[in-house]
Write a structure and sequence with these properties.
Layout (H helix, E strand, L loop, with lengths): L17 H7 L4 H8 L2 H14 L7 H13 L8 H9 L6 H14 L6 H8 L7 H14 L1 H7 L5 H11 L5 H16 L37 H4 L15 E4 L7 E4 L2 H11 L4 E4 L9 H16 L3 E6 L9 H13 L6 E4 L4 H13 L3 E4 L3 H9 L11 H12 L9 E4 L14 E5 L13 E3 L1 H11 L7 H5 L14 H7 L3 H11 L11 H15 L1 E3 L1 E2 L2 E6 L7 E6 L12 E6 L2 E5 L19 E3 L5 E9 L5 E8 L32 E2 L11 E4 L3 E5 L10 E5 L5 H4 L2
Helix pairs in contact: 1-2, 3-4, 4-5, 8-10, 8-11, 10-11, 22-23
Length: 724
């Protein structure tokens, strides 16, 4: 039960600081403050504002589009960002649909010259879509899909209809399209009927005739799997799209370095690979494989197999002291046991000569130097952002010393080759990483030819290039196939955090499976979800949300509003005011559509004509009248409430096994939900239990106009029922 409440937005004043700058372009105060808290987004948005020459302020619509540019512009095409910004400021690009089209176009163009004519055509610049155009497109869609619409009535997927119209008129105003679709549905179907709000019943399978030896067991049809469940590799692009790869390196003392594959480099690469997918499973041969490698093998070998490509088994053997033939043999055996067959078995050590030659070239270009600091000194200087005393030594001196290192003329531990990066960067990985170190240890694969060995940081990416590898997890992020390392769909720690998972629940999960586990058995996801629920049940504040509202009018109540106490946690102490939040109870309240039926039944605990139920945290109400439209569409419910709470209805929220009543297929995207007023103040990262719905977290993509929630996990828990 949720009382209706209007939303609010903040405002701010101007100034020269980033916060004031962001307020000037129309961002609300909370969004501006959250932006300032993210240094990278702050830098991007500040740059975009100056590129747009709107430091003195602009229209809020323009400001929101500029904010989207700052957060979502394709990293491989930053050279074209100033051009796009000018189109926004001049209102040639003025809708999110045009902006998304612009992103797609420049991402495909990358750093090549921008064809303005093609760009404007792709983004719908100058195209005006009339009301008649939209009506004609909707009419065509309804004619093509009339039979399905008539059959499914108001259960028709309006989103699909919207998508069809979008294909015909991509630049049409979405609000107008929605309005016309709703109008056409009403013209074709008339008023909603009660059946339109009921969930479709599943058809039972016909049971075959029973014989003497047969035992027939009823089956429930499994839910239709998603595309990613059917093919988990569908998110990966093809090799010919590698021109989109872009590496963006931020320096403290000079412009951002942006590097991407040119068309010429890509064509040369595709000629070598024949356009096939090339991946690699790159374990270090310094121990036995653990459960984490099973996922890596599935992705690396699985993608190559699914695309008809090749997967290397590459041993990253850059540390001769830790590597043994025992481990190499074990890895190859386990890979085969897991059902994978490598295209070729390679070693990083196969490329030692090329890696050495490239290191010499780095020194010649002034991008590497021989250093004599001890490991402790290197650690201290890196933490303090201090340059090594040998960082600026002459190039010829470093070349000679590196040659001495190679020929075994310098003692182990007395010199390293370090890459000259950026010691003042806030990114610790930019603090002059080690490229080579001295080790007088024979190599299991290369023998005693070398006494200097490359580091993993230096060698790994280079060998990927030398072996023409087309796919690694970096490409998921840099090409925007997902929204970054913190995308909630990824099983990275950052992704889990954005989804609302807590660090303590992850640690509890790891503790539960054991640190030394190495039998390569798969851990079920519901085991992790069990620990997530255990944690969130204690820490996530409860709140009331209605996703699919049905209006209820309390006929025996006046126009006053009562603020009722609701518990944030089940065991909230009665004397602690901070453990409660307010739920408004008034003459008009809203319940879930699924909580009302025209016909009651024994196993149904919701509201029905003549039946009483207890509203959560409020009073018992009894349905006295149902207001229907012309075709039995339920418009609203009339009810009376019992202010003395004499009625004792049986409610799902008071049952011991109320989780069993939840709908396991309730995941939907909704835009017209109602919530208690206090939720308006939710900040990014706040976690809640939407009562009877699941655990949710406020996503960082929340905008000034709307809050965006990610579902962390449902309330249903199958793991604890099976045993921990």
């Amino acid at each position: 039960m949720v009382g209706k409440n209007e939303s609010e937005s903040g405002s701010g004043s101007g100034g020269d600081k980033p916060l004031d700058l962001f307020l000037k372009i129309g961002l609300d105060e909370r969004t501006a403050e959250n932006t300032v808290a993210n240094s990278k987004v702050t830098a991007n948005l500040t740059a975009v504002i100056h590129e747009a020459a709107v430091a003195d302020g602009c229209d809020r619509t323009v400001g929101n589009l500029l904010y989207t540019v700052a957060t979502k512009f394709p990293a491989n095409a930053l050279v074209h960002r100033p051009t796009l910004v000018k189109y926004i400021v001049s209102s040639k690009i003025r809708t999110p649909a045009q902006l998304e089209a612009a992103f797609s176009f420049v991402a495909a163009t990358a750093s090549d010259n921008l064809n303005v004519v093609d760009f404007e055509a792709a983004c719908g610049v100058g195209i005006e879509v009339s009301l008649e155009d939209i009506e004609n497109a909707v009419d065509e869609i309804f004619k093509e899909n009339k039979a399905i619409i008539v059959e499914q009535r108001y259960r028709t997927n309006v989103g699909e209809l919207f998508g069809y119209v979008r294909k015909k008129q991509p630049w049409a105003d979405p609000k107008i399209v929605k309005k016309i679709i709703d109008k056409k549905l009403y013209e074709l179907l008339g008023e909603r009927m009660a059946a339109d709000n009921e969930k479709p019943t599943k058809k039972k399978k016909e049971k075959p005739g029973k014989t003497e030896d047969q035992v027939i067991i009823g089956e429930t049809a499994p839910p239709k799997p998603s595309e990613e469940e059917i093919n988990p590799f569908s998110i990966f692009p093809s090799p010919d799209e590698n021109f989109k790869v872009h590496t963006e390196i931020y320096f403290s003392d000079r412009p951002v370095l942006r590097a991407c594959n040119s068309k010429e480099i890509l064509d040369k690469h595709l000629k070598v690979t024949g356009g096939k997918v090339f991946t690699r499973f790159p374990p270090e041969p310094n121990g036995y494989l653990h459960i984490g490698h099973a996922k890596a093998m599935f992705v690396d070998f699985g993608l190559a197999k699914e695309r008809g490509g090749c997967c290397y088994l590459r041993y990253d053997d850059t540390n001769p002291e830790a590597e043994k033939k025992e481990y190499i043999d074990h890895i190859e055996e386990i890979v085969g046991w897991m059902g994978w067959e490598p295209f070729k078995i390679t070693y990083t050590s196969n490329h030692f000569q090329q890696l050495y030659e490239l290191a010499v070239e780095l020194i010649r270009r002034g991008r590497a130097y021989v250093d004599h600091q001890t490991p402790d000194e290197i650690k201290e200087y890196r933490e303090k952002k201090m340059n090594s005393p040998w960082r600026d030594r002459p190039t010829e001196e470093s070349l000679k010393l590196f040659d001495d290192m190679k020929r075994g003329m310098i003692e182990e531990g007395k010199a390293t080759l370090r890459m000259k990066q950026d010691m003042q960067s806030d990114n610790f990985n930019m603090h002059d990483l080690i490229a080579y170190r001295i080790k007088f240890t024979p190599h299991p694969h290369a023998g005693d030819k070398w006494c200097i060995y490359p580091s993993y940081d230096y060698a790994h990416c280079i060998v990927d290039s030398l072996e023409n590898v087309t796919h690694s997890l970096n490409r998921l992020v840099t090409e925007r196939w997902v929204d970054g390392w913190d995308d909630p769909r990824l099983m990275t720690l950052a992704g889990l955090r954005r989804r609302g998972v807590t660090a303590s629940s992850i640690n509890a999960f790891v503790r539960g499976i054991g640190i030394t586990r190495s039998d390569c058995s798969m851990i079920r996801l519901d085991r992790l979800e069990y620990h997530i629920r255990e944690e969130l049940n204690k820490t996530a504040a409860r709140t009331m949300v209605v996703l699919n509202p049905l209006k209820v009018v309390i006929t025996n109540m006046d126009a006053s509003i009562m603020d009722l106490d609701a518990k944030k946690w089940p065991d909230a102490p009665a004397d602690d005011a901070s453990s409660f939040y307010k739920v408004p109870f008034s003459k008009v309240v809203y319940i879930e559509q699924s909580d009302f039926r025209m016909k009651d039944s024994k196993d149904y605990y919701g509201l029905a004509p003549g039946k009483s139920v207890l509203l959560r945290y409020a009073f018992p109400i009894k349905c006295t009248e149902v207001i229907l439209g012309d075709n039995e569409t339920i418009l609203e419910i009339r009810a009376e409430y019992d202010p003395l709470k004499k009625t004792k209805p049986k409610n799902p929220a008071e049952l011991d096994d109320w989780l069993g009543d939840l709908n396991p297929h309730s995941k939907v995207v909704v835009t017209d939900a109602y919530a208690v007023p206090s939720l308006r103040h939710a900040a990014i990262g706040d976690r809640f239990q939407f009562e009877r719905l699941g655990y949710f977290v406020v996503d960082k993509d929340s905008s000034p106009e709307k809050l965006v929630f990610n579902r962390t996990v449902t309330l249903r828990d199958s793991y604890s029922k099976r045993g921990k």
